[in-house]
Amino acid sequence: MRERRTAQILMIFSIVLAFVELYVVIANLWLLS
């Protein structure tokens, strides 16, 4: 039960991190253009 919860938190964290990275890249491209 504990491992499953940790895996879920890691999955959500990685998705959030990916969205943040995408946002940073888009913001940089938008500022440069």
TrEMBL record:
The chain crosses the membrane at residues 9-31. Keywords: Membrane, Transmembrane, Transmembrane helix. This is Uncharacterized protein. It comes from Rhizobium mongolense.
